[in-house]
């Protein structure tokens, strides 16, 4: 079964935190366990909240919604952003068309390496859907 968790950037200091996402009283928060084992709740920037796909890239890094991946699939080399729409994780194929992860590539996610995310690395967005040769 896929582990359900989220990440988001803290509103107070911009640090990424990982845990349970809660939206109440018009506040977006992540609840996580600190180093001492206590549960802590911090407000996050809503636009940065992303769900864990349940998959890891070739380097065993967790893949979240909003991540930018460098992929190799049947000889094509391209960049893709991870989306979550209508209860399904989607990625862009090498033509920039969104497709469900399960039909996207025979080698998913082993054929992909996480390059960063659209929040910390906005320059990578221009590469999405393009081949490495185009860059």
Describe the protein.
The chain has 135 residues and is mainly beta. It has two domains: 6-47, no CATH class; 55-134, YopX-like domains (SH3 type barrels, Roll), CATH 2.30.30. It contains one helix and eleven strands. The chain has one helix at 101-104; strands at 6-9, 16-24, 27-33, 39-43, 50-56, 62-64, 67-73, 76-85, 88-92, 98-100, 112-117. The model has no long low-confidence stretch (mean pLDDT 84).
Task: Please sum up the structure shown.
The chain is mainly beta and 135 residues long. The chain has one helix spanning 101-104; strands at 6-9, 16-24, 27-33, 39-43, 50-56, 62-64, 67-73, 76-85, 88-92, 98-100, 112-117.
As an assembly, this protein is single chain
CATH fold-level assignment of the largest domain:
SH3 type barrels
The domain count comes to: 2
Straight-line distance between termini: 38 Å
Radius of gyration using CA atoms only: 16 Å
Largest sheet features:
6 strands, antiparallel
């Amino acid at each position: 079964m896929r582990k359900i968790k989220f990440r988001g950037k803290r509103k107070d200091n911009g640090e990424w935190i990982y845990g349970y996402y809660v939206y109440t009283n018009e506040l977006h928060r992540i609840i996580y366990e600190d180093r001492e084992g206590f549960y802590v709740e911090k407000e996050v920037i809503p636009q940065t909240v992303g769900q864990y796909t349940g998959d890891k890239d070739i380097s065993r890094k967790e893949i979240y919604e909003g991540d930018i991946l460098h992929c190799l699939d049947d000889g094509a080399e391209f960049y893709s952003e991870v989306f979550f729409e209508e209860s399904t994780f989607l990625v862009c194929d090498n033509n920039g068309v969104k497709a469900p992860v399960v039909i996207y590539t025979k080698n998913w996610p082993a054929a992909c390496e996480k390059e960063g995310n659209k929040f910390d690395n906005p320059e990578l967005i221009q590469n999405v859907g393009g081949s490495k040769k185009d860059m």
